[in-house]
């Protein structure tokens, strides 16, 4: 096994992975969970991303309950479904008064709880319960890893505790959220505990995942400053899918991509450059399945890529386009 990347060295209990959509955040989170579990830790991998594909990566069905990954002793996973969470949240508020209030009033409450604010509140409610663990749901896990939603959603998710506390204490905020927020007053202590956990670097680490391009690096720079402002200072950077230096300068495209990525990394800004950073090399295989995931942090698996071959693919005979044209010409195009 290769040496652990910097962000997995002496990790705290909670590790969050965030970044722009499409940067490989789920792959990094899944490979991290696998690495920790194989090191003998009990690990829970949680996805709060509405477009989560954690189940696909591990090749099994994962839902809104803690599910063991049979092939990896010590590893379990959980996917928080925002719509399912919202439905359960609505029922917790409406259920106790159903039959006690007029139908028209029940319909009004249900209407208040049907918007996007309810979905956000409900997802955060489940997310917070894992941080504070009032029911000892995750007490047996050494580490809880969160594969969070794309950056914009994540920022709102992590900022909401302070916003809701201010709303409840001072009557501020979006009036459209009055219904969803009405159910939170009794849990303010739990949300305060979540904020405390998030802002404690001994308990929480934020991993900013990017690609070696200006847009993705600019995105994590914004995330860094916004989340540092709410107290999340234990931050690391992972730049995923970095093209290794071409072995020979014979491929103009590979050379151009490499030079562009290196220029983006060099110009990533002082604030991001100052954070502990890991560069994860581009791999020649899709990051699906345990075999592939186990190589993600390995720095010795890129030989096939630099020579232009994929060990998982059979060789395909080269043929000029003219041969295809000649094959189509006798019968004409099929339209």
Characterization of this structure:
There is one protein chain. By secondary structure, the chain is of the alpha/beta class. The protein has a single domain, classed as 3-Layer(aba) Sandwich (Rossmann fold), CATH 3.40.50. It has 14 helices and 8 strands. Strands 3-4-2-5-1-6-7-8 form an 8-stranded mixed β-sheet, sandwiched between helices. It is globular, with a radius of gyration of 24 Å.
| Terminal-residue CA separation | 54 Å
Instruction: Please tell me what the overall shape is.
Output: globular
The tally of helices reads 14
Assembly state (oligomeric):
single chain
CATH class: Alpha Beta
Give the DSSP E fraction (strand runs of 2 or more residues).
Answer: 5-15%
Task: Give the mean pLDDT.
Answer: 81
Helix content: 40-55%
CATH hierarchy: architecture: 3-Layer(aba) Sandwich
The main sheet orders its strands as 3-4-2-5-1-6-7-8
The chain-level structural class is: alpha/beta
| Tally of individual domains | 1
């Amino acid at each position: 096994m290769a040496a652990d990347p910097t962000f997995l060295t002496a990790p705290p209990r909670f590790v969050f992975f965030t970044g722009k959509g499409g940067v490989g955040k789920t792959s990094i989170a899944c490979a991290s969970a696998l690495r920790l579990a194989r090191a003998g830790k009990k690990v829970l991998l949680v996805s709060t991303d509405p477009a989560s594909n954690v189940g696909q990566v591990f090749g099994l069905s994962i839902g809104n309950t803690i599910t063991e990954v049979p092939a990896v002793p010590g590893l379990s996973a959980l996917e928080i479904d925002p719509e399912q969470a919202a439905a359960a949240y609505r029922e917790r508020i409406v259920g106790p008064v159903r039959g006690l209030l007029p139908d028209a009033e029940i319909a009004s409450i249900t209407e208040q709880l049907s918007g996007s604010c309810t979905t956000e509140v409900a997802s955060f409610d489940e997310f917070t319960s894992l941080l504070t663990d009032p029911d000892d749901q995750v007490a047996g896990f050494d580490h809880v890893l969160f594969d969070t939603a794309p950056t914009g959603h994540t920022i709102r998710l992590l900022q909401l505790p302070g916003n809701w506390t201010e709303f409840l204490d001072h009557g501020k905020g979006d009036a459209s959220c009055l219904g969803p927020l009405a159910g939170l007053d009794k849990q303010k202590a739990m949300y305060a505990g979540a904020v405390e956990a998030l802002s404690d670097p001994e308990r929480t680490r934020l991993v900013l995942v990017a690609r070696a391009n200006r847009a993705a690096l600019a995105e994590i720079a914004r995330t860094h400053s916004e989340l540092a402002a709410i107290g999340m200072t234990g931050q690391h950077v992972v730049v995923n899918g970095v093209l290794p230096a071409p072995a020979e300068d014979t491929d103009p495209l590979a050379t151009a991509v490499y030079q562009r990525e290196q220029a983006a990394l060099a110009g990533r800004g002082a604030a991001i450059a100052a954070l502990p950073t890991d560069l994860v090399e581009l791999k020649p295989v899709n990051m699906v399945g345990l075999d592939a995931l186990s190589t993600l942090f390995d720095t010795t698996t890129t030989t096939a890529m630099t020579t232009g071959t994929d060990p998982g693919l059979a060789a395909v005979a080269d043929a000029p386009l003219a041969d295809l044209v000649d094959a189509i010409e006798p019968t004409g195009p099929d339209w």
